[in-house]
Design goal:
The structure is a homodimer. By secondary structure, chain A is an alpha/beta fold. Chain A has helices spanning 17-23, 33-50, 63-72, 88-99, 117-126, 150-160, 180-183, 209-215, 227-235, 245-261, 263-283, 309-320, 346-363, and strands at residues 6-8, 56-60, 80-85, 103-108, 132-138, 140-141, 146-147, 164-168, 187-191, 202-207, 299-302, 322-326, 336-339. Chain A has 13 helices and 13 strands. In chain A, helix 2 (33-50) crosses helix 10 and helix 5 runs parallel beside helix 6.
Chain lengths: 364, 364
């Protein structure tokens, strides 16, 4: 049915009407006092969402652009980095790091399993010369629905003392607790079309004092993604380049909604939605790709069992106006993924489960 | 008066209601067939606007991000480049090029004057060893309201044979004729909040076959702004990373409006608006910063004569709800700039001139 689509993919996520209408306002000048006031308010609200006292920098870029900024600003060619790889996004940060001449050692786990914190402990303890300059981790692996044990891995990084921890929190921020200052995370990247409940186009990077220290000696070339001008502009409630004004209107509206709901309530809701989704899928007799203990709170990856994943997605889309995500790379056709991230209520998950039940009945 | 602001700055430019409402639609999945169809249509319309048969690549970035992509994809560290510098943006491309280790030779002119094509001819003719790999030119210098003689400079680049011509057309594309294929321009960068009539957040790069040849041996590190994955995805009506979906809805609406108006009519309108603005300012007794023959069609820079530029801007803003731009860097307080780019009609320019007349009367 036209214009009736319900998004249950890991991003873009559903956008509240209040946010869509805020975005449709006419832009004002980004160098005006009125817009400076908006930037100032956004900066405060972003610190609240990120649970940090440090700046959160807003870029006109996708989550990948934000992660690139989070990596290239603090490292130099030839620097040794450990990259956790247990899915499509972990793999991407390894490829990106190699593109910039970093010496990458991948710490891998099978897709659908968690990274083993012990692997990180071993590599970091071995490194008595402190050659490892950063550990790059995907917190919530969107391709498989696995939440990595960031807290434990980070403890091993802290014990190492030298390495920065750089976190892809693209589908965890605003869904699960990522207490940046409490844990001492150095760099945390995220993107707008996820827990933020706004359309794609904004990337965010939270940066610790330790990372800014590393910035001083980092020599990878950069300009558009050089974070120092963003920091400098941030302090004056400004931006180094023209910011995506209307997406920032949207961000303002969504952060207001998030503050009204409260951080703990948001995390609880995502936990509840994940539980309902997983139990519902199990009740329909379909196996889950990741086990309960390591499940991401953004998406649930489902093995379609004797059915064709793409056929299920097609019926869900055409008959029930529900968009599910497919599997990526070698998981294409082998899993489908149900998103429950951002502006999603229990009703949405129940609708999707109801439609999935009908879909399976038609395929039986 | 609240929500009554009229933008007459060089960007963001006014956005038509049709575009704002298109942008406020709920996002759909960027990997869906429906969105692929939109990308396909956009790609065709962008070729029309750029007067090229080659791909025009759409990035989630500001105009500066688009220009960075247009430079770093086709060059290697140590490559010699000529950069035209007669304003804030020419200066920026020199700084950017140096940040990436290019060997920059600036060809400068005083702010408010045109770059001299003869300077380029001389440097290019001298270079018998063909060491110059690119000539980087700002077509319409937004900081001063000067249109550089791209056509002539490009002829000298073509006579050289080896160098690429890389053009910042951020405030010329969609305002003045930039016939990319006819002139044989290699790389042309632009941004959405200008002639495109949509909010900021999209950058565009048109790339020639010759530039793609240069890409093959270019070694500057890149990932998010690596244009090859964009080209590959483009061919499949897709994108390498999550695109700013709602801004692309906006782009679709604005390109439809531009096609309805017609390219020549758009160029004629900008010429007419520039003429009206300049004659109107002269009639009010204020000197123009750039002379008529070299005037940009996007903005008109005005010397406030015995008045204070910032005071004029303040009254225009507070009393008449018209936002004008100030001067940048050493021109701060010394000029103000009236934008007439994009979704601007004769009525708007007449309104601004009327308000300017009243403002001057109050200051007399």
């Amino acid at each position: 049915m036209q214009d009736k689509l319900m998004l249950m993919i890991p991003g873009p996520t559903p956008v509240p009407e209040r946010v869509l209408l805020a975005m449709a306002k006419h832009p004002i000048g980004h160098r005006s006092g009125d817009f400076s006031k908006i930037i100032g308010e956004l900066n405060e609200d972003l610190k609240w969402l990120h649970q940090t006292k440090n700046e959160v920098l807003t870029l006109c870029a996708s989550g990948t652009g934000a992660m690139e900024a989070g990596i290239i600003n603090f490292l130099s060619k030839g620097d040794r980095v450990l990259v956790g790889n247990n899915g499509k996004f972990g793999e991407r940060w390894a490829i990106l790091s190699r593109a910039f001449g970093l010496e990458v050692e991948e710490i891998s786990a099978e897709w659908g399993k968690q990274l083993d914190p012990e692997d990180f402990r071993a590599k970091l303890e071995e490194d008595t010369e402190k050659k490892i300059k950063a550990v790059i981790i995907t917190h919530s692996e969107t391709s498989t629905g696995v939440l990595n044990d960031l807290e434990t891995i980070n403890k091993h990084v802290k014990a190492h003392g030298e390495a920065l921890i750089i976190v892809d929190a693209v589908t965890s921020l605003g869904a699960v607790n990522v207490p940046i200052d409490e844990w001492g995370l150095d760099v945390v990247g995220s993107g707008s079309q996820k827990g933020y409940m706004i359309p794609p186009g904004l990337g965010f990077v939270a940066v610790s004092d330790k990372a800014w220290e590393a910035y001083k000696t980092a020599t990878l070339p950069k300009f558009y993604l050089d974070l120092a001008p963003y920091k400098k502009a941030n302090a004056k409630n400004s931006s180094p380049f023209t910011p995506p004004i209307n997406l920032m209107y949207a961000l303002k509206a969504s952060l207001e909604m998030m503050k009204e709901e409260g951080l703990q309530n948001i995390f609880d809701r995502h936990k509840r939605l994940t539980h309902i989704c997983r139990e519902g899928v199990k009740a329909l007799g379909l196996p889950l790709y990741a086990s309960d203990e390591i499940a991401a709170l953004a998406i649930t990856a489902v093995i379609p069992d004797k059915h064709d994943a793409e056929q299920i997605r097609s019926i869900m889309r055409k008959k029930y106006d529900i968009a599910l995500a497919g599997g990526q790379d070698h998981l294409s056709g082998k899993i489908f993924r149900m998103g429950h991230l951002g502006f999603v209520s229990e009703r949405d998950v129940l609708s999707a489960l109801g439609a999935l039940k009908e879909t399976l009945a038609q395929l039986a």
